Amino acid sequence: MSGRFSEETMTAAMRDIATTLGVSAEDAQLLQMTNNAVFALPEAGIVIRIARTHQLLDRVTKVVRLGNWFADVNAPTTRLAPYIEQPIQVRGLAASLWRYIPRHLPALKAEDLGMVLREFHTLGTPPFPLPLWDPIGDARRRLADADGLNKSDYEFLVDWCNHLEPEIASLSEREVQTLIHGDAHVGNLLREPSGRAIMCDFDATCVGPWQVDLAAVAVGERRFGTTGTQRALALSYDFDVTHDPNWGTLREARELKMIVAAVPILATSEDVANEFNRRILSIREKDLKAPWKPFSALRLPHRN
User: Fold this and answer.
1) Are 132 and 208 in contact (CB under 8 A)?
2) Which of 139, 145, 154, 226 could form a disulfide with 264 if both were Cys (CB 3.0 to 4.6 A apart)?
């Protein structure tokens, strides 16, 4: 399938960026094709993250500012690629560039995530404004870029946003606000050569209730069929989010995010569209146990 944000389009944008930087893209590796198209260029020592939407370009500027601040405070995070003015814009898209970190053993686990989050949540907030946690606003912006979304699903998702919005507002008013990653799961961890576990992917980083960062693993275990990850995270962080009074709202906010993430790219992959349909049907039927598949594990569209 083709589309404005297809693999073909993203690959061409990546090659344009490599040309601008004067580096080779011959060894380019596609790492991810979900909200961002993420390419590793090992020889150049960089990772290129291209936002797959025209509606969220402000996020790229935000993550670049965060990347610079993270270096200043020695945060447990990946670092921006040095000596490159960022963000980079190409073909109407925006990209950030990061240092390439080869895979190192041992494999990262929920225990690592818990320890990293405990440190991350003590960083304080940077000396520049960050958005507040706003899963409803994020969802609505993605719906505005709804490539291939039918009217019935669009209306259902809008209604869900309307229903959940006051609950989110109430939760945010009650709870302590701190720096949160916003998409905290093991897939967003890397291991440095020193062995230190660090976080990556700061598109969703904002200020909000710290419990938000513990919800992704709990919902992922329920939906993706993993076992033991939630307990391991709870033990490592010393808190079980599923026992939090706000758990129902946190769960719904996470599931909404996991569904609307596919909206801008529905037209680029039949497998993504099928998984999207499976997820939204389970929400319509209020089936809290229906299994989902990670978008990152689906077959990517072929280049033309």
Assistant:
1) yes
2) 145
Which among 238, 197, 193, 214 is positioned nearest to 112, based on CA atoms? 197
Asked if residue 252 is part of any domain, the answer here is yes
User: Structural domain tally of the chain?
Assistant: 1
1 found inside a domain: no
* Sequence-separated (6 or more) residues with CB below 8 Å from residue 125: 178, 179, 207
The SS3 assignment for 304 reads: coil
Four-residue CA torsion sign, 185, 188, 194, 195: positive
| Both tokens assigned to 173 | 């008013």
**Which residue shows structure tokens 């995270």?**
233
User: What residue numbers bound the domain in which 180 lies?
Assistant: 7-297
Instruction: Find where tokens 């090659």 sit.
Output: 15
CATH number for the domain that contains residue 279: 3.90.1200.10
Residue 304 maps to a domain: no
Cis peptide preceding 106, ω within 30 of 0: yes
Is residue 302 included in any domain, yes or no? no
- Mind listing the pLDDT tens digit for each residue in 245-285? 999 999 999 999 999 988 877 877 889 899 999 999 999 99
Write the single-letter amino acid at 264: P
User: What spatial distance separates the first Cα and last Cα of the chain, rounded to whole Å?
Assistant: 9
